[in-house]
Design brief:
alpha/beta, ABC_transporter-like_CS, 2 domains, Rossmann fold, Alpha-Beta Plaits, 15 strands, 12 helices, membrane, seven-stranded mixed sheet
Length: 333
C-alpha cells in the first residue's frame, strides 16, 4: 500500500477511482508507479506536478486511450477495460494539444464534434448555440478558428469536449501557453461549468496558482506516485506559520548554513535549494533579525529576504524535498 498523506473527507459518490496503476514504456521508463487516488463526484480535482511526472499518462489511461500494465480504474463506477464504449460517452476530454480545426469556423468545429457523438437536427443546433454563448464565442462563431486568440481557441476546445453533455471532464494542461488574462478568464469559465452543470472536472497542471484557484482537492504527483492529496487550503494550513526565504550570494558556501541556525527553537524546518534558504517558522517577525545576525557573523551574504504565507509550492517542497520549478528543471535537463 502506498504511504500517501491524505486529509480526511466525508464519504461522497466517487466519480473516478484509480488503484495501484502502473505503466512502463520501453524497458525502464516507469511513467506510473502504483498511482492511487479517487475523485468525488461534482468536484474540481487538480492533478499537480512537473512535466514528466506521469499526469498525461494517467489521463490517457483514464480516458481509455492507453491500457495500464497493472492496476484498476473505474469511471462513474465502470471499469475502463470492459466498458470503454460507454465510458467514452460519459466523459469529455480536452487534450494538451488542441483538437480545433483551424480552417473551420467555431460553429463548424462544434457541429462536427456533435455529429461524431450522434447529435443531429435541432438538438445539435441548440447545443452548439448554447456552448458558443457560454464561452462568449457567439460573435466570432462564423470566423475561421485560425483568426481566434489563443484563449478563444482554448475555450472552443473545451466547448467541443462538452458537446455531448459528459458527466466527467478531463482537462490536460488547459491553460499552457495562455497569457495571464486569458488564463484567469478560462478559470472563471471552468468554475461556472462545474457549478452550473454539476460536472466532475479533473485538471492536470504544473501551474501552482491554477490548482490553488480552481481545485476543491489537489493531488501532487511525483515520479508516477501520489505524494500528498487534500484540500489546497488545508494542506497549506498544515504547514503552520510563515515561510522566510533568504536569497544568498552565489559565492557563499551552503554546507554549514543549516547547522548554524538549526538550533534556534523558533525554526520548524529548513530547506536549501539553489541560491535560497527556506525557513518555516511560527515567529517570522522575531526570527528574521536573529537569523540575519547569525548569518552575518558567519560571513554569509544575504541578497534579499522575503516573508510569505505557505503556498502550494511550499507544500510540494515539504513532501518532495524540492520546489516545483526545480523539478521542472530536472525533467527538462
Amino acid at each position: 500500500m502506498n504511504n500517501v498523506h491524505q486529509t480526511k473527507c466525508a464519504k461522497e459518490p466517487v466519480a473516478i477511482k484509480v488503484e495501484n496503476l502502473v505503466k512502463t514504456y520501453g524497458n525502464d521508463v516507469k511513467a506510473l508507479d502504483g498511482l492511487t487516488f479517487s475523485v468525488k463526484a461534482g468536484a474540481i480535482f487538480g492533478f499537480l506536478g512537473p512535466n514528466g511526472a506521469g499526469k498525461s499518462t494517467a489521463v490517457h489511461i483514464m480516458t481509455t486511450l492507453v491500457n495500464p500494465d497493472h492496476g484498476k480504474v473505474t469511471i462513474a463506477g465502470m471499469d475502463i477495460i470492459s466498458n470503454q464504449a460507454v465510458i467514452r460517452q460519459t466523459i469529455g476530454c480536452v487534450a494538451q494539444k488542441s483538437g480545433v480545426d483551424l480552417l473551420s469556423t467555431g460553429r463548424e468545429n462544434l457541429t462536427l464534434q456533435g455529429q461524431l457523438y450522434g447529435l443531429r437536427g435541432s438538438q445539435l443546433r441548440t447545443r452548439v448555440s448554447d456552448l458558443l454563448e457560454r464561452f462568449h464565442l457567439t460573435k466570432v462563431a462564423k470566423r475561421p478558428a485560425n483568426t481566434y486568440s489563443g484563449g478563444m481557441q482554448r475555450k472552443l476546445d473545451i466547448a467541443m469536449g462538452l458537446i455531448h453533455r459528459p458527466r466527467i471532464l478531463f482537462l490536460d494542461e488547459p491553460t499552457t501557453g495562455l497569457d495571464p488574462e486569458s488564463r484567469t478568464a478560462l478559470w472563471e469559465s471552468i468554475r461556472e461549468l462545474a457549478k452550473e452543470e454539476g460536472l466532475t472536472v479533473l485538471i492536470t497542471t504544473h501551474y501552482l496558482e491554477e490548482a490553488d484557484q480552481l481545485a476543491d482537492e489537489v493531488a501532487i504527483i511525483d515520479h508516477g506516485k501520489i505524494i500528498i492529496k487534500g484540500n489546497p487550503e488545508k494542506l497549506k494550513e498544515e504547514l503552520h506559520g510563515d515561510i522566510l526565504q533568504l536569497e544568498l550570494s552565489e559565492t557563499n558556501s551552503f554546507e554549514n548554513i543549516e547547522h548554524i541556525i538549526s538550533d534556534l527553537p523558533e525554526i520548524q524546518e529548513i530547506m536549501i535549494e539553489n541560491d535560497s534558504v527556506y525557513i518555516r517558522t511560527d515567529s517570522s517577525a522575531k526570527i528574521v533579525a536573529v537569523v540575519l545576525g547569525i548569518l552575518e557573523k558567519a560571513g554569509v551574504n544575504i541578497k534579499s529576504t522575503t516573508i510569505s504565507r505557505p503556498t502550494l509550492d511550499d507544500v510540494y517542497m515539504k513532501y518532495t524535498g524540492k520546489t516545483l520549478s526545480k523539478s521542472e528543471g530536472e525533467v527538462d535537463s
